[in-house]
Amino acid sequence: MSTVEERVKKIVCEQLGVKESEVQNTSSFVEDLGADSLDTVELVMALEEEFETEIPDEEAEKLATVQDAIDYIVAHT
Amino acid sequence: MALEGKVALVTGASRGIGRAIAKSLAMQGATVIGTATTEEGASTISHYFAKWGLPGDGIVMNVNDAQAVEDGIKQITSAHGAPQILVNNAGITRDNLMLRMKDSEWDEVIGTNLTSVYRTTKAVLKGMTKARWGRIVSISSVVADMGNAGQANYAAAKAGMEGLTRSLAREIASRGITVNCVAPGFIDTDMTRKLDDAQRDAMLKGIPAQRLGEPEEIADVVAFLASPAAGYITGETIHVNGGMYMG
Q1: According to the 3-state scheme, what is the secondary structure of B86-112?
Q2: Which residues carry this modification: O-(pantetheine 4'-phosphoryl)serine (chain A) (predicted)?
Q3: In this complex, do A38 and B174 lie within 8 Å of one another by their Cβ atoms?
Q4: B154 annotated active-site
């Protein structure tokens, strides 16, 4: 079984069309990985599906980096 | 066939333009789910698909009820797959002069003709985004652009629908989803049969084609917009009115 970190990074790669080597824990979706606002909404949708959880809009807005997403998933699943 | 393997949702499909749209999409190979507000309407839809020998079914879904829309889309998705074509066709009129218009007449028309478009579209958008393909076609009216005495509520709802269409088209075009309107003029349906002879004659004088349109003439344009051939058309309102209004 992959770790949360691996699974989050895999989804980030798929959704944003970036290479695994480009994705660091500190990477910002918008500034480093080139996501636009619609990309970030889709990314949250994909995370919700992968981890079978619902991320409220006000929480989703705070997820700016890969580490933010990992921390949220670890704390809420 | 152009729409083979696609699931299409057509609201307000028991009669008139919605019924013709349901048929034309099914003839192109789509599995069409038509909605009605009553059990009777839903079974009318199921029966005509059986009669035509085309893939489709009717369900009860009141587009003015948020929970019903959510449940309806879930039901369709688990039975047939996520809709990749949505036709927002359900609509009502509650005509009255502005000075006499009741709040209930305003609210019902805005709810059924405009808020429903927001709700139903939002409910299918996730599936289309994931599929990276989608077609949203909303049935507006020539009245949205021309205005019509006695229809301030209806014209406002339809003009709102066109504005929503242009905004959403910009948001979602990069995901292979097109969002358009078809604006019928004077079409021979129950809605226009309510008019008396004098009103009809006055209307016909303003139509260069000198006849009413047929529901099929709207349905053909919707089927084109839903097809892969129309992939580069988005945010557009196509007028189908025999020359009654030319922009």
Answers
A1: EEECCCCCCCCCHHHCCHHHHHHHHHH
A2: 37
A3: yes
A4: yes
